[in-house]
């Protein structure tokens, strides 16, 4: 894979980071982006469809059927689901085969540096800038980018009308953080690859979800669609949910906090944190096991992170590996 | 405690061991948790932030409400209130609204199947006549912008509640110092915090205050779900500006009264709209429900050319949208703050092209009068 880090965005980083994009906007928040899309573009009540994560081709087929049933009353928002990648180009093709249908991709996990969603066919690329773009856990923010000038104008008008803007100070902090994005991502990816491999070899770990592992079912897709494998991974311990939670509590270097993409390693239990608002049946369809642990790998030395995992394994499960 | 004391005597930093005199800026997106499956008071700044919380509690206290919420702009606050509604619901609003609110009501909410009808709410009988079973929200500003019409808030609240509708008042032109709509029966009071609450033109923000717990929970749900909350740095600036609200407003209102009197006696001025003048048609209502006429007023000067000349040549009144700052500002509502009113509504609203709006600042009143006098002499 060609290194995506050779390129350093300079004067207009967000625009440069998404080459050729007509415009990149900072709005108040990612969630607002969904709201904008709903109110502005669809002009119909928002209908949700969750792409099944387990089988990519099945997901696309299911989605095609669903589109056929719902026709033009649909817009597509694609969010990253841990443990599965979605074929952006394939979904874009389906979207654009319908009139008046747009594809929006939540590109937060990878950023435009690692996946150019717009080049893959998405109409809108969405980022929670709170994550890798800021990278320092200093701001809350979101952005939308598109190649389409008419769409840009509509987004601009709706943002103005809803008043969901980002304050100048937070925009400035985000810009400061953005300058080190390529360097940070490089380290995030390298560290995540090491940690993923180490976890996979650990006897108390039942399963590791990281697109860079040979065992990851969609590794070929990741290589084709992404420029690197990213800094996010998830894993299941060979243990109960209760012990998995005790394991998280025992970690000292990894911080238990919501959010991701920051310089510090953050660890969460999605079932009780980021995904707790998702109804149980939907969570089951998404394939989020209760014991799943999500890790946003930071910029600490990987040896220190591994030492932290080792002491947590010892303290929860005893000394023997 | 009196209002002046409440502005500066509150807990600026609950539980802080160092007892700072101002609220620290918690510029953080997330908060470390002790346990993986149970959370502390704060977990993520979209859901809650200590700096924002101090501001939200303070504005709630100043408006005599129980819960306050701060947003990234006044429009984000207004949009949040409208998200309490669902398809098929109807908003009944006074016709003299800020242009941005008209645009939201007329051009965005219609996509969600929410209808908007406008009435002249300065006569509450018009509301009684127009309210239907679909009316879920009655929405007014008082005094209105830019005509400074006064709505009898107690009367409208009674009608709203008789019909099971929510009553929301945009209190931006008055501030909680001069008027407390919740005490007059409103369910929701909102502000463009950009205006008098901030007072220094350095923050864009919005505020909602309510007194009902169930309503507060709904607003909180929307603030968290939509991610429209105000950032910590801007909350700090607002907390700072808010402390001088009474000082500023006293000075600005005093200046506005002097200017309104001067303008109403000037031969080149055809009409003056200011609820602090005894000949204002609802002067008595304003006297009853507020503590003065405020610091925003408007007047007409006969032609759009004259209006343009006055605005462009005045020295102390700077041309800008917005109001409520320590600096005096001047604007032509038709072309500025109200240009976003949908065309079909603008025809029925008949905003005069020679209407000038002043937001009076804290400068010396003699300087302000001298400036206006020479501008009027020149036309």
Q: Would you write up a description of this structure?
A:
The complex is a heterodimer of chains A (321) and B (379). By secondary structure, chain A is an alpha/beta fold. Chain A is 41% helix and 13% strand. Chain A has 12 helices and 10 strands. Chain A has a 5-stranded mixed sheet with strand order 1-5-4-3-2, with helices on both faces. Mean pLDDT of chain A is 76; it is low at 1-55. Chain B has 14 helices and 12 strands. In chain B, the strands form 2 sheets. Chain B has a 7-stranded mixed sheet, sandwiched between helices. A 5-stranded mixed sheet of chain B has the order 8-9-12-11-10. Chain B is of the alpha/beta class and 379 residues long. In chain B, helix 4 (99-108) links the parallel strand 2 and strand 3 (115-119). Classes of the chains: A alpha/beta (321), B alpha/beta (379). The A-B interface holds A 28-32, 35, 39-40, 43-45, 130, 134, 137-140, 142, 158, 160-167, 169-170, 173, 245, 248-249, 255-259, 262, 266-269, 272-273 and B 27-37, 43-46, 71-79, 87, 100, 103-104, 107-108, 111-112, 203-204, 206, 225-231, 233-234.
Care to give the gist of this entry?
Chain A is of the alpha/beta class. Chain A is 41% helix and 13% strand. Chain A has two domains: 13-179, Type I PLP-dependent aspartate aminotransferase-like (Major domain) (Aspartate Aminotransferase, domain 2), CATH 3.40.640.10; 181-317, Aspartate Aminotransferase, domain 1 (Alpha-Beta Complex).
List the helices and strands and how they pair.
The complex is a heterodimer of chains A (321) and B (379).
Chain A lengths: L12 H5 L5 E5 L2 H13 L13 H15 L5 E3 L9 H10 L5 E4 L4 H4 L9 E5 L13 E5 L2 H14 L5 H11 L2 H20 L4 E5 L9 H7 L6 E6 L3 H10 L4 E2 L9 E3 L11 H7 L6 E4 L5 H16 L4
Chain B lengths: L2 H6 L41 H13 L4 E5 L2 H9 L7 E5 L4 H10 L6 E5 L4 H7 L4 E7 L11 H10 L3 E5 L4 H4 L9 E5 L13 E5 L2 H14 L5 H11 L2 H20 L6 E3 L9 H7 L6 E5 L3 H10 L4 E2 L9 E3 L11 H7 L5 E5 L5 H14 L1
Parallel strand pairs in B: 2-3, 2-4, 4-5, 5-6, 10-11
Antiparallel strand pairs in B: 1-7, 6-7, 8-9, 9-12, 11-12
């Amino acid at each position: 894979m060609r290194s995506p880090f050779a390129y350093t965005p300079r004067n207009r980083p967000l625009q440069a980071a998404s080459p050729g994009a007509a415009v990149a906007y900072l709005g108040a928040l990612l969630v607002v982006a969904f709201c904008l899309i709903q109110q502005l573009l669809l002009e119909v009540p928002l209908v949700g469809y969750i792409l099944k994560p387990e089988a990519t081709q099945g997901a696309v087929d299911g989605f095609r059927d669903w589109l056929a049933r719902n026709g033009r009353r649909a817009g597509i928002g694609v969010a990253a689901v841990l443990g599965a990648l979605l074929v952006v180009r394939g979904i874009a093709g389906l979207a654009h085969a319908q009139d008046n249908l747009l594809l929006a991709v939540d590109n937060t996990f990878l950023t435009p540096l690692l996946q150019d969603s717009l080049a893959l066919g998405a109409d809108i690329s969405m980022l929670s800038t709170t994550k890798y773009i800021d990278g320092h856990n200093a701001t809350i923010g979101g952005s939308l980018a598109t190649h389409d000038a008419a769409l840009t104008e509509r987004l601009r008008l709706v943002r103005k009308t809803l008043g969901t803007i980002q304050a100048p100070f937070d925009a400035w902090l985000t810009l400061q953080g953005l300058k080190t994005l390529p360097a940070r991502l490089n380290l995030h990816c390298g560290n995540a690859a090491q940690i993923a491999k180490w976890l996979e070899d650990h006897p108390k770990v039942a399963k590791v979800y990281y697109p860079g592992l040979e065992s990851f079912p969609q590794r070929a897709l990741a290589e084709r669609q992404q420029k690197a494998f990213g800094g996010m991974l998830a894993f299941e311990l060979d243990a109960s949910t209760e012990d998995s939670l005790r394991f998280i509590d025992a970690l000292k270097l990894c911080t238990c906090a919501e959010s991701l993409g920051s310089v510090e390693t953050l660890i969460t239990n999605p079932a009780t944190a980021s995904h707790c608002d998702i109804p149980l049946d939907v969570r089951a369809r998404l394939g989020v096991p209760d014991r799943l642990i999500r890790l946003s790998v930071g910029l600490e030395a990987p040896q220190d992170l591994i030492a932290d995992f080792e002491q947590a394994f010892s303290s929860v499960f005893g000394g023997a590996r | 405690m009196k209002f002046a004391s409440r502005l500066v005597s509150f807990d600026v930093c609950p539980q802080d061991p160092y007892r700072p005199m101002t609220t620290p800026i918690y510029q953080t997106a997330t908060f470390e948790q002790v346990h993986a499956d149970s959370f502390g008071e704060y977990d993520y700044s979209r859901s809650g932030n200590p700096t924002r919380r101090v501001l939200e509690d303070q504005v709630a206290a100043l408006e005599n409400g129980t819960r306050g919420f701060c947003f990234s702009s006044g429009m984000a606050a207004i949009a949040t209130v409208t998200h309490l509604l669902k398809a098929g619901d109807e908003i009944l609003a006074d016709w003299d609204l800020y242009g941005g609110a008209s645009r939201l009501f007329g051009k965005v909410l219609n996509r969600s199947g929410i209808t908007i009808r406008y009435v002249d709410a300065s006569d509450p009988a018009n509301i009684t006549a127009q309210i239907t079973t679909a009316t879920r929200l009655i929405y007014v500003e008082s005094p209105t912008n830019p005509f400074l019409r006064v709505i009898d808030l107690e009367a409208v609240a009674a009608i709203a509640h008789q019909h099971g509708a929510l009553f929301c008042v945009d209190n931006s032109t008055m501030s909680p110092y001069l008027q407390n709509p919740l005490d007059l029966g409103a369910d929701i009071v909102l502000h463009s915090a950009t205006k008098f609450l901030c007072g220094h033109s350095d923050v864009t923000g919005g505020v909602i205050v309510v007194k009902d717990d169930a309503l507060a929970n709904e607003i909180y749900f929307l603030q968290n779900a939509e991610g429209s909350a105000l950032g910590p740095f801007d909350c700090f600036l607002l907390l700072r500006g808010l402390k001088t609200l009474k000082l500023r407003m006293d000075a600005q209102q005093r200046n506005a009264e002097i200017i309104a009197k001067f303008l109403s006696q000037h031969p080149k001025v055809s009409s003056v709209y200011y609820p602090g003048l005894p000949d204002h048609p609802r002067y008595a209502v304003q006297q009853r429900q507020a503590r003065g006429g405020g610091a925003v007023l408007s007047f007409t000067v006969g032609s759009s050319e004259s209006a343009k000349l006055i605005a462009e040549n005045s020295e102390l009144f700077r041309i800008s949208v917005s109001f409520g700052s320590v600096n005096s500002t001047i604007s032509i509502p038709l072309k500025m703050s109200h240009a976003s009113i949908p065309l079909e509504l603008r025809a029925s609203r008949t905003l005069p092209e020679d209407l000038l709006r002043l937001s009076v600042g804290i400068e010396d009143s003699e300087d302000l009068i001298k400036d206006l006098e020479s501008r009027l002499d020149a036309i």
